[in-house]
Amino acid sequence: QVQLVESGGGLVQAGGSLRLACAASGRTFRTYAMGWFRQAPGKEREFVAAISWSGGTTSYADSVKGRFTISRDNPKNTVYLQMNSLKPEDTAVYYCAANVNLATLRNGSWGQGTQVTVSS
Questions:
Q1: How far apart are CA 59 and CA 82, in angstroms?
Q2: Which of 66, 68, 69 has its CA nearest to residue 55?
Q3: Tens digit of pLDDT for each residue in 27-79?
Q4: Are 47 and 37 in contact (CB under 8 A)?
Q5: pLDDT tens digits, residue range 10-36?
Q6: How are beta strands 10-13 and 114-119 bridged, if at all?
Q7: Residue 107: how many other CB atoms lie within 10 Å
Q8: Is 12 helix (H, G, I), strand (E, B) or coil?
Q9: Conformation bin of residue 104: beta by default, left when phi > 0, alpha when psi is -120 to 50
Q10: How far apart are CA 56 and CA 120, in angstroms?
């Protein structure tokens, strides 16, 4: 399994931007699909974005399309989530996930999460 550590969360005003990073351990990082999920208080964890091992395939939740961009840097063992035009409803703990393919991300490895708070 791969170990994941998220960073980059914080407090930002509506309309602002943040970039989250997820650093992964292990030489097999480049073979893993990666994703971001989020969980707001009182709500279930939901999918945000995902990227294939090569970076050639990406997918997004409808609620973030056009505002968020997922990318990865395999030599640095890091995946990013660039978040623009943030809204108060984006407030949540954001988690990084990794698994052998996109379809099974929820069943793979998870980071500890990073808090994102968007004020109105």
A1: 14
A2: 69
A3: 788 889 999 999 999 999 999 999 999 999 999 999 999 999 999 999 999 99
A4: yes
A5: 999 999 999 999 999 977 888 899 999
A6: parallel
A7: 9
A8: strand
A9: alpha
A10: 35
